[in-house]
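I would like you to sit down with the record closing this message with an eye to the fold:
=====
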Amino acid sequence: MASSIACQHGTFVAGMLAARRGSSAPAICPDCTFLVRPIFPEKTANGDGMPAATPLELAVAIREMVEAGARIINLSAALLQPTSMGVQRLQEALDFAASRNTITVAAAGNQGCVGSSAITRHPWVIPVAGCSLDGRPISESNFGSSIGRRGLCAPAEQITSLGSDGQPRKFGGTSAAAPFVTGTIALLWSQFPTATAARIKSALLHAGGTRRDTVVPPLLNAAAAYQTMAEART
């Protein structure tokens, strides 16, 4: 249903990436090819009314996207209720993505806590924490040592994108932050099509200098990442 939370969430994230340039949405990489794999049911039994999927369902979706040829996976979702079997399958799916040189970008989550999950601590995943429009970490975002070491911060407040009715809507949280990083990777790969996934990932994570030992990751710096890639090519 177009009015469901699951549909609205997915449409908003997709609109940030795929909307036409000049629209009210960020429209980061409108000419990219998108593979859409729903993981949230149209209705959910969660008490908070938010859409949810099991770790096993997410693991299956990741594998399907990699097998379909996805080079970047955007996970605008957080792992809230892991099980031993679910975590194992999810780990295997993320390992599979890494073995196929698919870069996985994942929202850090909006529980306002310090810690990590099977997703955000995976060495090949780029976790994305949320910041305000002036670059300050937002209180709702999760942070942690693995997020600080291997992640980035991106805007997560008052982001305008498209609603499921095609009209502009505002949204926030780390689900909105993740597509900024995903879109940047897509743009870098469009400019440097022969670059390896490891090279793209390294340029993005180390743009702007050495990382500090902190639970808060540095801000996304697309221009610095581009410059790093351009200098390496010359």
